[in-house]
Amino acid sequence: MTTESHSAEKSSSVVAPEVPDFDLNFNFAYGAPSFHAKFRSEVDDFVVDEDLPAPLSGSGEHLCLKILKRGENTGWVAEQLAKLFGIRPVDVGFCGLKDRHAKTTQWFSLHLPKPSDEHEHFLGNLAERLDAQVEVLEVTRHNKKLRRGGHQANRFVITLRDVADVEAQKPKLEQISAMGVPNYFGEQRFGNQGSNLYWAYRWMSLGETIRNRGKKVMAQSAARSWLFNRVLSARVADATWALERFDEPATGPLWGRGRPVVSAQLAEFEQGILQEWSNWQHVLEHAGLSQERRALVLLPQKMTWEIEGDKLVLGFALPPGTFATAVLRELCVLDNQSAPALPQ
Questions:
Q1: What is the span of the domain harbouring residue 309?
Q2: Is 197 helix (H, G, I), strand (E, B) or coil?
Q3: Neighbours of 168 (CB within 10 A)
Q4: CA 282 to chain centre
Q5: Beta strands in 162-279 (DSSP E)
Q6: 225 and 103 both lie in a single domain
């Protein structure tokens, strides 16, 4: 047998490990929702407005634009702004990634120390120059670059359509408004059909090298979020998600390097939940991340609701890093009209 044929025979006999089915149906705090609703039927059904913690300074090296976007991706808009104004992508700042299939307002900062007439001209027809559905609402300057997570809150107005018996949902709405919901990372963190978890598994369980930096960052974030959601789902199952446990506040782990920042009892409890994911924990400990904690309870602020026939219009504000879908999933099964069709 030649070396070449032997190698071929050996490789053909290797069976690739099966990738697990990542079940994103985490436990519900108030029982599984009993009705469906159409979600994101139109771009204007999902409205997000960003609130900053304080007014921008009005002077400084950074040109700041408050932009209204409809159906546009935050990262893509930032890249196009960098190209248009002739600066590096790293010199464009923003506080958070807003949903693409939505009507959103948010601030962008551009490092442009020297004002110019050309810049003013760009702002006059930005939508045309970017070939995008954008509108500049405000222009000012600031002495610092806008950083991720630097905003105070996101305010949402969400329209759910084709809701059966809307009036019957009032008790659960009141419960959510008063008690909050489990602070799950939303499905968008895990990618389309869990694709980011697929890459996390190939990296952290199979030992493959992910050379694409973007995929690696998303896989790392998804893995960390998956472990947190597993702990939170277990706490929801035993009805302790909103309570102290072992005299510790209601928080869960964001895995990383360093000693646990909670009591030995709570650390042991959480480790028991995550024991089958110890290889993921090991990789995350060596990925440059430090151990952190995240609240288990997400309490929507200034929550309102209006009933318009078979439509339910919800309004609420959430802090950075949290997900509106964590609120919506407790209320109803979302038929996402903007989601890509699943393969047949």
A1: 24-46+157-183+303-337
A2: helix
A3: 11
A4: 24
A5: 181-182, 251-254
A6: no
> How many CA within 13 A on the CB side of residue 145?
11
Residue 107 corresponds to which amino acid? W
What sign for the dihedral angle of Cα 136, 142, 144, 147?
negative
The residues pairing with 304 across neighbouring beta strands, listed in sequence order, are 315
Structure tokens at 110: 């551009």
Tokens 């003013």 sit on residue: 120
Same domain, 40 and 63: no
Which pair of structure tokens corresponds to residue 277?
């994911």
Residue 246 lies in a domain: yes
Can you tell me the distance from the alpha carbon of 136 to that of 150, in angstroms, rounded to the nearest whole number?
Answer: 20
- C-alpha dihedral sign at 92, 95, 96, 101: negative
What pLDDT, in 10s, does the model give residues 177-216?
Answer: 999 999 999 999 999 889 999 999 999 999 999 999 999 9
Q: Could you tell me the two tokens for 186?
A: 């939303």
- Measured in whole angstroms, the distance separating CA 300 from the mean position of its chain's CA atoms is 16
Q: What is the mean pLDDT of residues 313-335?
A: 96
From the list 288, 299, 291, the residue with the least C-alpha distance to 242 is 299
User: Quick check: is 2 in a domain?
Assistant: no
DSSP designation for 91: G
What is the rounded distance in angstroms from the CA atom of residue 116 to the CA atom of residue 63? 11
Which amino acid type is present at position 127? A
Q: Which residues are catalytic?
A: 99
Q: Which pLDDT tens digit goes with each residue over 59-68?
A: 999 999 999 9
Instruction: Report yes or no: 291 and 254 within 8 Å, Cβ to Cβ.
Output: yes
